[in-house]
Structure formats: structure tokens, C-alpha cells
Write a structure and sequence with these properties.
Family: Belongs to the DNA mismatch repair MutS family.
Function: Component of the post-replicative DNA mismatch repair system (MMR).
GO molecular function: ATP binding; ATP-dependent DNA damage sensor activity; mismatched DNA binding
Strand content: 5-15%
CATH topology of one domain: Rossmann fold
Structural class: alpha/beta
Radius of gyration: 37 Å
CATH class of one domain: Alpha Beta
Oligomer: single chain
Keywords: ATP-binding, DNA damage, DNA repair, DNA-binding, Nucleotide-binding
Shape: elongated
Protein name: DNA mismatch repair protein
Amino acid sequence: MNSPGVKRPLPSSDDGGSKRKCSTPSIMNFFSPKPKVVNSQTSSQATNNQSSISSPTQAKPPTPSISPTRSTPPKSMPRTPVAYSPRTTFKASSPSVKPLQPQSQNCDESSLVKVNHAHLNYKFLQPEYRRDINMRRPDDPDYDEKTLYVPPEFLKKETPAMRQWWSIKQRNMDAVLFFKMGKFYELFNEDAVIGVNNLNLMFMKSNEDKPAHAGFPESSFTKYADKLIEKGFKVMRIEQTETPAMLEERVQATGKCDRVVKREVCQVTTKGTRLFGISETIFHSAQNQYLLAISESTVDSSETGKKSKVFGVCFVDVTIGTIYIGQFTDDNNLSDLNILFAHHTPTEVLYEKGSLSSDAMKCILKTGARLEPLKFWPLKKTLIHIKVNRVFSGESNDFEWPPFMKSLFVEGETSSDLMNLEPRDEYKLALNSFGAIVYYLDSQFIEKQVLACANFEFYISPLSQQAGQPHGPFNTVPPMVMDHVALRNLEIFTNSSGCAKSTLFEKINDCKTHFGQRLLKNWICSPLCDVKQIESRLDAVEALISNNNASLMNEIVHMLSQTPDLERYLSKIKNHCFKSESDTRAVMFDGNQYNKAKVNAFVNLLNNFRRLQKFINSINGAVKGSNSKVLCRLLSFTTDGGLYPEYSATLDYFENSFDFKAAQKTGQIIPSPGVNKEFDECEANIKDMKEKLDDYLLEQQSRLGCQSLEYFGSAKNRYQLQVPEKYIKKVPDDWRIESGRKGFKRYYTPAIDKLFAKLTTYEEQMKRILDSVLADIFGQFLRKAKLWSAAIECVAIVDVIQSIAKFARSLMANGVDMCRPTFVQNEDPPILEYKNGRHPVLVKIDSNYISNDLILDDRTILLSGANMGGKSTLMRQTALLVVLAQVGCFVPASSFKLTPVDRIFSRLGASDRLLEGESTFYTELVETSAMLHCATRRSLLLLDELGRGTSTFDGTAIAYSVIEEISKNLKCRCLFSTHYHTLTRDFMNREEVRLAHMACKIERDGDEDGIDLDPLKENITFLYKITDGPAARSYGYNVAKLAGISDSIITEAFSKSKEIELSCKVLGSLQNICRQQTELSSDLKQAVLSSLRA
């Protein structure tokens, strides 16, 4: 974009043209102090002849075709961008007009430009007069806030261009329109205000009775669209679908005098539907961007007799193309739904307005996703739409239902048509959500781009998986369940501040590819429970850790470092191959650059697959000597018994199909001889016609006796015979004079007319062939999509394994003990035992981190100790070591023995849920309730200071009862920390509970004997070592001293503590004495005890 005051070309008077004129900017633009309002960006102006809109049919009320009309630009609209000075009077946007707002507003309110533009005074935009397109008021239950009624009398006063703009805007009030005029995208009215406030564009100078207006060049579309989309806006791209030349031909053919090029809506983009568009878009983030649709219903529970919630979901990352469909019954805490959102966090959620419960909406809101309420299609309508539009096709390009889709219907596997079949009960809601995805993708004009070559997978909720049910290509045993609470409390992906720094994922992630990073996240979310598969992963990791394979490790890292995001590159080819119909008609003024980008992306993809193939060949010997069956299979071709596909013949075909370098240079693929028969025939015909024309020229030179006779002209005026004046007398009578210049005259002859007509026909045929060649090449490439996806999957697994191995190697290089975990499959009781274990995140920061030994079996460990003594850290450390071990990683310990954990439950830290209106104590009990209801003997439970959110007596009593339940009934591995010392006394002699504490060293000033000690004279040193037995005290006063609490307050608190402690001891003694009195009646005893408790 240009700097302030730099001239920007404006559109010419020919609609659809690219030339612009610019007036000299005001000197105030250069010397006025810069206010907060705007930065420099220039904008464009409307052209003399504006366009009619021919919008494709949409699922929502379609944008009607506007009859071509003669168009003129808005009168008296200045061509100069204006930068407002501080002396300019800014008028706040009228409070009665509700401007378009993003769902996640990230802009600074103080920086917004507020000018009194004409649209702020439009009567039909005022709340008291506002109606939707069907004339419904906002208080009508069927009111559609996405549409607007624009009075016909208002439109009559508008220029044709603005009438066209309003015809689209009134049906898309929730979108920002990028309206193409010539080589520029223009924004008007509220859209222009949004552009200025969020994109640092500048308003075009105008009077208050003219529309607000800003814009930018075609080449900047991706840059500005991405900025708005990231802020939560919806962007609609409207393109010219007719050139001025095409307009002239249409006018001559129809006799109409509208002189207006056509335009159509080509794409609508939101956070969940952003993909590689008309220009190159590089996804700098490796994370998935899921578009998710959700449906909800209720069923009667046979177990509880109460209503249970059932959810059907369908979600897809449109940049990759894998569609997940699933349905599950959830509990009262919506555990399954929360796990889904934690593992596959959506960026945009589609839901049917009024169909979701408040609890489900709370879960969705916590994701921070963009929300899009829709009217879901019935299943029948979805199926009809898919069939009519031939969304799916087989190898022969005939319509064909995917096998996955058939499996969702009763008797679907044996039927060729699903139209008259009933969906299975377990997938009805899921198919409802799938229909919403289809509808939404269609309304965004990217339906075929996403669905045509999509991979379908079942989404099976981790909590509902049964043993033996498949989960992924390498595992048939359900994985460990890591719910949203565990992921948050253990700081797996985000820390307490909400960022990724110092998290497990951040420390272990050294993947070199984006698709490797996505796979690593999946591995961490779902650690394995199948010991055989864990051992296979460990074999591969151990092989890469070994110094004997250091060169192999280096070669793998080097190979991966040069590999782009192949998953998304593959998806990009799909996007170019399956454009919407309107987009194929779009006139792009930088079209040659876009074609070059397409070809470059394709060639780069082929080159990367060739490079990977050469790499597999080069390391074949080293891999076979690595002693890892997994690495051997991943890095060996299928022809040698491996998993990596052998695609050399396929690559050879594409490499021999066209000249890569020439294609990258020109942006056009010219088929090699023998590849395209139609092209070869047409090329031969063109060559033959040119040779005949050359031969004819030689004949005429001889006939006239003029060796200087030559052809003149270009394009449609080529092959005019240019004859010098002195030879004109020899010109035959049947030659037709066409043009001339001084000393020469130019002629067409009957023979030239005949030959040139044939040549032109062949050239037009050649153009049509070349236009289809790129799509044909892409189509052939995509027919092998499963081949390319299999290769990408192998590379992704290798990337994750090397990342895990590098994590272990880096700690070993710093002197940290790393060991291979030992797994005990059927140990009873289940065991978790390690020596010299260290926190895998903190030890990466500080290699001197103090290690600990721990043995955890069916005896609950009741852990006490000083504040800040390391209890919570030890609990997190234990859980993270388990996660690492079951992911397939070496762990920071000298030894580690484990019976696989099926689920980690964590109740760590004090937190509340203000948005849900839930207190700290309620949150504690909800998470504890989930543990008690869902934990099995193979689970790992971590409870940190349960009961702290309520009174001491209530908290102690609840903690006591929970420990009783866990230790007596569940008998699973459990760490329970507490500061309630009465609990340690209550469980002192219980076999099912083991007491331990975090040791500390106390140093005292003076000669105190340890009785009634002054806390101000105590100095505490935390040893961070777990030790048998209960802690003597919690040493809270020492923490208060460290926190800067005044000595007087600490002294008074200590005195009050001793008083309370003495009272409790006296009360306890009296209760014991009362119980021991045999002479008192039971009623009297009960009365006395009740009185003492009161």
C-alpha cells in the first residue's frame, strides 16, 4: 500500500478497467499532527460504469440477479484520500445504529475513527424503523438479524453501483463486503468504517451526504481479509465475472445498452472456513482450525431413570479435509463434550438456535470459538443436495456415496443409494450436524473444495470406547483418558496464565513439521494403554537416542527441517481443483501471478515427495541396522514390507508430463509430447497452418517478384500482406485492402482468410485445452490422495518420534538420568514406582531439580507438609511422568515401573468458574464427584487440599469421607495432599492409607526448647523430598513472613492459633471422657456430646 500522500491510480471510466487517476493530496496530510484515528493507507474510487450482480443461488435467501443498467459513479466524489487532523470534529457513531461488530473484538476503542457518515442517518437503519428483509421487526420471534429491509424509494436515489452493493448487503448484514471494482476491492458505508478502524485504511474524501468509502488493491486481498477474519469478522469476496470486451460482445448480441460488467459473490470466509484462497496463504500456525457443528437431544437413562443428554457432532479442519462424525451420550457434567473441546478445540461452532441447553452453551463459550447460529437442514434435504450437486465422485468421476456414509445408514453397505434409507439410531444427531456442515460450506462457496476428496473418520468419545474397539491405525486398545480438567491442571498445553510457555507440550515439542506437531498433540491427548504399542514406540525412540544411530538421527532431522506442511499443501491442490462455479468465472487482474502460485505449489509438492523418496532410499541400510521394527516399517517402502508407499512410477508420470521450470516461469502447464493426445493434435494442426502460411508468403514473393513482401499485424489482425507501393500494380484483383501506411498497403487474400480462420480456430481450441490441462493434472494427482496421505502419515510419525528422542537426549546431555519405563500389564494391585524421578518440565529449566522416589499402589498416600514444600509439584510430576511413559518417551528417573493408567483425575489448585456462577468449593466437589463415579482400579487420582473452599470442619469431614471411599472401595493409585492434621491422626493406623510428608529443615534463633515456639524466630528450608510419616505442622506463619506480612499480625495470628488449638484439644478430651462414662445413659451421653459440639 502507498504511503500518506502518495498517488494511487484510480479506476478509469470503463467499468472493469484498472486505470486510475489521482488528484494531488492536501498539504495538511503531510504536516498535520497525526491523531490516533488512522494510519496511511490509500483507497480507490468507484468507476464510471458500475456493475450488476449475478449472485449464485445460496441456501439462505439468494442474492437476486440485478438487471444490467447504465451506471455512473457517485457524483462529486473526490478522488483524494483524507487524513483527518486534530481540528476535525469527530462525531460518535449514532447510538441508534448498530454497526457490524466482530465476535472477538481485539481493536483498541481509543484508536477508532468516528466520523459522521451518511449511513448513520439512514432512517431504515434506526432501531425504531429497522426490519429484516421480510419486513419483520426485531421483536418478532422469526426476525432475521442477518438481513435488512432497504426501501425501494431509497434505492432509486442511489447510483446503480450502490444499488448493487445494497442488494448484497441487505442479505448479508453480518459480513464485510470486499466489492471488486477494476483492480481494487472497495468497502462502503459501515464496512468502510470497519476497514479504517481495523485495517488502517484511509477514507476517500467525501461529503457527509456521500457513502463512507475505502479500499485496497487486488493483490492485498489475503493480507486484509486475514486481519478481519482473525478479529472475528465474516468477509465476503465479490468479483467481476466479465471483462469490458465480454461486456461489449454481450451488448452487441443482446442490443442492451447497460454497459455494466457482471459481478458475482465468489467466497465467504470466517475463522472456521479460512483456507488457501485466490493468492498464496501461508498458515504460520501448526494447530488445527476446526469448524464444528453440534446437535443436542435427550434420552431416558436405563441406569438412573433420569434424562441424559445426547450430542451429535461433525467437525472438520477445512485446510486439511478430514471430517469427523460422532454421537455420544453424556453425563451431567458434560464430561464427553468438554473432552471433545479440549482435544479438538473449535475455532467456529455451528448450532441451531434454541436447540442447545444452557450447560452446552457454557461449554461452547469457554472455547472462545466464533458462534454461528443456523437453521439446520433436514437429513433428506442434505442427501438430495449432495446427490444433485454431485459432491462425491468415484474413480470414474460418476457420483458415488462414500463407504463411510453408507455405514451410517441401516442396510447402507449393500445399497447404492441412500435416499430412501433410514439412518442408524446411533448416528441420527451426528448426521444432522453433518448436514449443517454441508449447508454452511455451500453457503461459503467452498463445499466441493472441502468435501470432494475428504477423508471421513468416526469420532468415538474417549469415555465411551470399549476394549477391543479400534482407535487409530496402530492401536486396538482404548487409550488413556485425559479430560479437560487434567489437561488444564497438569499444564499440558497451557499454563496458569493461559499461554504455552513452560508446558509439557512446549518442552517436548521439537517437531520440524507442522503436521508432526499436530500428531504430537494427538499423542499427548491420548496416551496409549496397549503395552505392545508403547514398547514399539520406545524401541524407535531408544534407537534414535543411541549414539550408534546419531548420524541417522541427524539425517532425519535435516530431512524434516526442509519439509513444509504437506497436509495443507495437499489440501491447497484440492482448493485449486474444485473452485466454485462463480470463482471460475472471476476476472483476476493479477491472474498470471495466481497461476504461477498454483503451479509453484504443485511443483513444490511433487519435489518434496521426490525428495522424501530419495531419502528413504538413502537411509535404507542405516534403518535396518537401528534395531527398531517401527522405524524400519515407517522408513521402508511397501514393496519391501514397510509402510511408506512406493510412488516412484506416479511421480515419474507427472515429471514427464510437463516442463517444471517452464511451468513455474509462465504459470502455464504445457503437456509433454504423448501426454495429451488432444493437445498434440491441436499443436500439430497449428504448426501445419503456420507452415502453410509461410509457404504461401514465399509463393506470393515469387509471384510479385518482391522479396521484401512480409506479413504484418498482431492478434486478430495478423497475416496482412504488406506490399510496397511500387509492387501494388501486380496485386491480384481478389486481394482485399485492409490498411496501409506511407509507402505500403496491406491486404488479405482469400487463401489467407481461409488459412487464418483455421489457425484461429485451432488456437482457440488450444487455449481451451491448456485451460483444462492444469485442472486435469491436479485431478490425476488427487486420485492418488490416499497414496500421498499415507506418505505424510509415515513422515509425521517419524517426526514425533525424533522429537521425543531429542527431548530425552537433551536432558541426558545435561546430566539428567533418563530411563526407559518398564510396564507391568496385569499387576495386582496396579503399581506406579519410580526412583530419582524429576518433573519433566522443571528439570528442563533447571537440571539441579531435586529428585524424589515414590511407590504408589492401592494404598492411598495421604501427603502433608509445609506450604510451598512441593506437594502439588510432586503430584504434577507423577502424573506427567505417567503421561510421558505411556506416550512412548523415556522419563527423567533412574527407574520407572508402571501398570498402565486408564485415566488421570486431577483436583489441583484453587479455582472457580465465575462465568458459570460456580464457587471454588463447588468446583472442587464437581471434579471430586467425577473421580468417585468414573475412576477404576487402574486410574490415577490426584487430590490437592480437598475441602479448602469451605469451613475447616466441613472441609475436614468431606476430605475424610472421600479418603475412606477411595482407600476402601476404589483401591486405585491416589495421592491426596492436605493441611488438615486431624486427617493424619485419623488415618495413622489404617493399612489402606500410607502417611507421607514433604520434608523441611527448621532452624530456630535462641535457645527455645520447641514448646510454644515464636514463629518469627524460625527459619524454614524446604527440602522438597517426600518422607514417610505425617508432617508436624504446616508452617503457614513462615510463608506469611516470606510474603511480607507484618510481624505484629503474625504474632497475633500465632497466639490466636494456639488458643483455637487448645480449645479443640479440651473439647476432644471432654468428648472422650463422656464416651468412656458407663454410668451415663445413652440419651444423656448424646445430649452431652451434642452440647459439646455446639
